[in-house]
Amino acid sequence: MTGDTQTRPSRHPETEIAYDAVIVGAGFAGMYMLHCLRQLGLSVRVFEVGGGVGGTWYWNRYPGARCDVESMQYSYSFSEELDQEWRWTEKYAPQAEILSYANHVADRYDLRRDIHFNTNVTKATFNEDTKRWVIETDHGDRVNAQFCIMAVGCLSAANKPPFDGLESFKGPVHHTGEWPHDGVDFTGLDVAVIGTGSSAIQSIPFIAQQAKSLTVFQRTPNYAVPAWNEKMDPAYERAIKDDYPAFRAKARARPTGFYFPFNMESALDATPEEREQQYDEAWARGGLPFLGAYGDLLFEKDANDTIAKFARAKIRAVVDDPATADLLCPDNIFGCKRLCVDTGYFEVYNQPHVKLVDVSQNPIERFTETGLVANGVEYKVDAAVFATGFAAMTGSFDKITIIGRHGQTLREKWRAGPRTYLGLSTVGFPNFFMITGPGSPSVLANMIPSIEQHVDWMTDCISHMRDIGAATIEPELKFEDDWVEHVNDVAQVSLRSTCSSWYVGANIPGRPRIFMPYIGGFPIYVNKCNEVMTNNLEGFTLKDAQNNDGVNFDVTPRTRWTERWRVPVDINIISPATIAAKRVPVV
Ligand code: N01
To answer: Which residues fall within 8 angstroms of residue 550, CB to CB, at 6 or more apart?
Structure first.
């Protein structure tokens, strides 16, 4: 399978260098973590497997890739100057512009000098004697650090199904999450796309423009709402920039961490005519906010049925061939899998050179030298695109051998599913932090605020540890167990816990089924983190270098960084009243 082909840097491996912190990954999380730790005066090394900054947006360069959170909200909020100076050109930013933004931030804050690119962290081991992490890379680096911080991304470990015969296929195979930097020219080629998730739905219209023929292999159809993307409206941009902090604050108070209009009424209280009008209006706004048409869509099956029916009718209205339209219509919960946002996706199937193949009943059998076989038919193709997603949330951790206390690996600990305290840390792995780890809102919220909030919390935590002379911090088992239970309990409130999605690890055979992100809403979660901080890091054990706990540690941490995350809760999903009413839009 092709992918990023960067040459390895000609640098000497770093051996036996002691850092205060090592950060794994230089996406938006690793970059901001580096920026903050520098301000504390820490020495930091970042290792990044890619050839540049940007993480997800460095790798996912497939045609049509763009964010489906509005660009005015999908950016760092830590600097008013940065907010004011950067100008987005479209309502929803394309991948290249988001990557330019990441590079702009890296330049502005001179981040690259502490980052080693093209370097894959292979192993991280906690040394119980020195209380330091030893971090090893495929470049021969072996450094140690007090803190090991994982900024590895939630959707970064590509899922490449091991189809029989794949190695015999003569044509190129590209995964959307590892797209070649020089682009791919499909002109005149017969192309197969496997998968119909967000990446497929964004890329298929572009691939269809070039390919001689395009065959899409669909295991599960997906709902998609039009983006109605447009050039940035300068008046809208001005209005937000006139008081960006107030706009950011409004967004943080929402369960999703981004702002959009929504209606808290029940879909079931409306007449069919009222519902139709409401859905028409929400559809006209487009994108993820469509789910805000009513408050109970993700909580009441009967309510969800009404929006699912509306969305299916939209598909049938676009797709000319009724049999193809039938195949494209999902019959599962609307928004149960991550909702897709499209531009001209369903229309593609009206083009004579595009064909949809249903592999829901019988999986793709095998690849041959010249194509692939499904339902007993060989489809001859020149190139294949795997839009097959990711080993979500935990896949990037699994790729590294992470060894905590008593030689326990993280893989072993998480064999039955990830266990964390607040998605920030995990028992048995002292001084090991995860930015947007499983058990935090992460993928259910706006990623960049989720990242910033975690980084700010960690920065206050590390600053506090230095103030009081603590050598290690580790969560306590009871608190971790309670948090895992709470994450599960809250998930049960939502219809999202009921379907086979990557949220529960169901997209890849053999993965444990557990709802991984925290669905209770961003502000509730943020306030919980703040409470833990001000309650003297409740649920964590801090120890000094002699392994004593509790000595001189009874000092309330300062909250210099987390201060900006004291947010009101606009909607509270986890109060008993909300659970009873089951009403909250969560996208
Ligand atoms: O991956 P996916 P993605 N045989 O897992 C199919 C974010 N994102 O890269 O549904 C045949 O959603 C699989 O089938 P099934 C966003 O959070 C955001 O598209 O498992 N098919 C599915 O159709 C998104 O949710 C943006 O039955 C196989 C597809 O491959 C997440 O990333 C853009 C198969 C994978 O879909 C992941 O999206 C892009 C097999 N063996 C992504 N294995 C935006 O911001 C898998 N499939 C807009």
So the answer is: none
Ligand 1 proximal residues by C-beta, below 6 Å: 67-68, 155, 161, 176, 194-200, 202, 217, 219-220, 338, 341, 359, 363-364, 387-390, 443, 502, 507
| Whether pLDDT at 7 is above 60 | no
CATH architecture of 15-157+392-580: 3-Layer(bba) Sandwich (3.50)
Could you tell me which residues are beta bridge partners of residue 409?
403
- CATH homologous superfamily, domain 159-223+337-389: FAD/NAD(P)-binding domain (3.50.50.60)
pLDDT value at position 574?
67
pLDDT digits (tens, 9 = 90+) for 549-566: 876 677 889 899 999 998
The 10s digit of each residue's pLDDT in 322-342 is 999 999 999 999 999 999 999
Q: Does 15-157+392-580 match 159-223+337-389 in CATH topology?
A: yes
**Which atom of ligand 1 sits closest to the CA of residue 196?**
23
pTM above threshold 0.85: yes
Task: Output the CA–CA distances (angstroms, integers) from residue 176 to 59, 236, 366, 527, in the order listed.
Answer: 8, 32, 20, 36
Q: Look at residue 3 and tell me whether its pLDDT is greater than 50.
A: no
* Domains in the chain: boundaries: 15-157+392-580, 159-223+337-389
Question: Helix crossing, 28-39 with 95-108: angle to 10°?
Answer: 10
